[in-house]
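Fold sample X.
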Amino acid sequence: MDLLNGYHQLELTQESRNITTFTTHVGLRRYKRLSFGVTSAAEIFQNTLSTALEGLDGVRNISDDIIVFGASQDEHDTRLAALFQRIHENGLTLNKKKCEFNKDSLEFYGHIFSSKGISADPRKVDAIRNTNIPADISEVRSFLAMTNYVGRFIQNIRQ
């Protein structure tokens, strides 16, 4: 699931609005809602959403993306209903076009989650397989970052 207009759902306090003031050709303006341009916006948004979802079993989020899981359909549906209630209580809105339900597996931040467990996204593995041999230290670092991301799925990676 995905939240509609992520950061913009969070209203700024009166004191915070003053520090977002900027100049335009028609005078001074300030934000009333959290903006993408604020340096700490990602951290503020993540903390706010994590707090809103705290205590919900089978619910995880990264930024504005949320997943719900359960061992059975009934457990999943109960957890989904609890999530909807919590989202409503916190005045948040989901992006209906980006929400998907009752999936047997899903891609979430470079990993595939299914009833069989967690695996590397095949696209990430293909990117590693199709990478040219690193030619300099910068390319070696880039390659190591790519392999480290899916490293727990690669046998003997540390050897």
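Fold sample Y, listed below.
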Amino acid sequence: MVTSYLGLFGLEVEGVRVERVEIPLIQRDYAQGRPGPRVARVRQSFLDAIHAAVIGGEPLHLDFVYGDVIDGTLRPLDGQQRLTTLFLLHWYLAHRARRAHELPDRSAFGYAVRPTARLFCERLGDCAPPPASERLSAWMEDQAWFLHTWRQDATIQSMLVMLDAIQKRFDGADVDAALSGLTRGAASTVTFHLLPMEEPGTHEDLYIKMNSRGKPLTPFENFKALFERTVSRTAPKRAKELAHRIDGPWSDVFWPHRGEDQLIDDELMRYLHFVTELAEWRRGRPTTASDVETLAHRVYGAEADDALAQLDHLFACFDVWERVDTAAFFAEHFSLDARAETVRLFNLPDDGGVDLFGLCCRVYGEARGQGRRFNLPTTLLLAATLRHLIAKTPSFTARARVLRNLLEASSNEIRLDRMPQLIEDVDALIERGAVGEVSALNKAQAAEEEAKAELLRQHPEVRDALHALEDHELLKGNLAAFELDPETLPRHAEAFARVFSKEHWPRVTAALLTFGDYSRSLGRSSFRFGSGAAAEPWTVVLTGANRPQLAETRRSLARLLDHAADAEDLASELDQLVQRWLAEREAERRLDWRYYLVKYDAMREGRSGLYVSEEPTMGYRLCMLHKHRLNSNYRDPFLLAVHRESGVGDAIEDKTFTGYPNRERWLPLARSGAALRCVDEGFLLRAPPDEEHRRGFDRVCGEHDVSDWILRVEQTSHEGRPVDAEDRVTKAARLVQAMVETGL
């Protein structure tokens, strides 16, 4: 049952009314106030979370308090640290708000650990804190009732440290409002789940069972004991079976995946966490609990309507691996590279191969940045595998391939809050092959999968070619950039593997542009092209849109692949292709932006493949981004090409830029400060600031027909737009050379 600290008192637990809380003898000292930086960080984080909850934030749930109630006294087996902190917090807030009369009797909270701690709690109930300006611990130690021996009592000293921390954290807070939020019972701003013992009086026996070695409990030992109790309240026979299986058959399953400590505790808990989250999602509930203890109680506890069914699911998810060599099973169906009979997996969260079960045992539940190390797509793949093994579904490899393709295309759709719907899609696909029932995964990719399935039904001979394309690192299952034509697909698949090998990327960035504008428009004058240095831009360009949106990309790619399919020396063929196209454009005197990007390697150096234009279309005023945002350093590709072509080295400043694309981008000469920038008509010039350099600047400008401060480029009209008829980069490079030779 969910309650709060004050809500405990008067609460009926299995017919017994709680009148007081006593920390039992078998428990350790109060530790949250101990000295040391690590404990201080834990203490501060805990108080920060409580403060955020009581001062108008989201309510805070503190997981379990577990114990038995005998003769009206709750003796917690687990949760004494939290209860002690809440006792101190309520005492402080109630006295500061002048509402101490709302607190339980002074003997309502105490320690059986030692009489000194019990007496301190009683004395604390009799006194009121000093003015806010005085430190609580110093004031208390100066009181007549504070015994000298308490200075050596670890629990009392820890309480004093915590009281000082509470005083500091809640300094200036609205204590009246904070206390009011804490006094709303189950609706309190700070709550916990009270789990009573099934058999009152077995408290010490259970603690001894859990801690018979006399050492601190491991997280697994603590969880195992609590979990067995949770299950025993739901299904007593299942609890005995659970204990037997954890110590028996399931241990054999997890032993090959044990950690360096030669234990399987963490591995078993991580997999249990996965199974329990999976159960929660299948119930249609997004996961909100961050810890497996709370989640397990919510799913398998007696309060859950479907607890018995969920326990059956839990046992099935563990039992199914008893008959499976996990490494061999996953190697049979998945691989990290492209193979004819397996499904290539991308973006796995570890370097330990394709054994998803073993990977789950190693890292499930661990964070990576703002996300999960065992990421959600991998979680869905493991869920699919479980569904297959438990339900004995047919055609698993084929259906897993379709699922892989859908997951790779659904980066925008796969979110934690949508996992219940995503699990429904996974189940429908693995159980029935029902791609048409997909509703949460990417629907455009689902349509692609149906089209590919139809192609394979009619032309099974193209299966190997189609799968080879799907397994390519740049495509990852998405073939929207290809015509699903049985006549051309095998030829294009073979050519694509050759053309798009990494060593050819720099050449392909030029060669593909000769067949058309294959870029993907991202809106707001942003355009994505392939990159000579990175795979991600190619993946975005070739797979980042639906089939209709990729029509021009598909046409350009098909022409390139047709051209390169039979080339013996591919690099030479691509170079010749580029040179022929440039010569044709020069003969036509049609030097648009594509001409410059194809001709000058420097203009394709942006690792991201991202260009931002000053106008809605690509043109002569561009930003070439190395990263993905304009607030990072980027290049003006035309100015960079002029610098490189001029060959003047550090006589020109090596300029990068930041900010909006319409900000002026000047390329200055290092000695004189004269500069130029690219505009539609050519290059706008800026004179040097001093008179000595100005005379040389004017002379060079006159020699190069500069008028109105513009180095004009001859232009013609094409499709209603002005297009260069001569090479502006070459013309500007000559001007720069002349300026440097003049001493500018």
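Sample Y note: The longest strand covers residues 60-70.
Also: Residues 243-449 form one domain.
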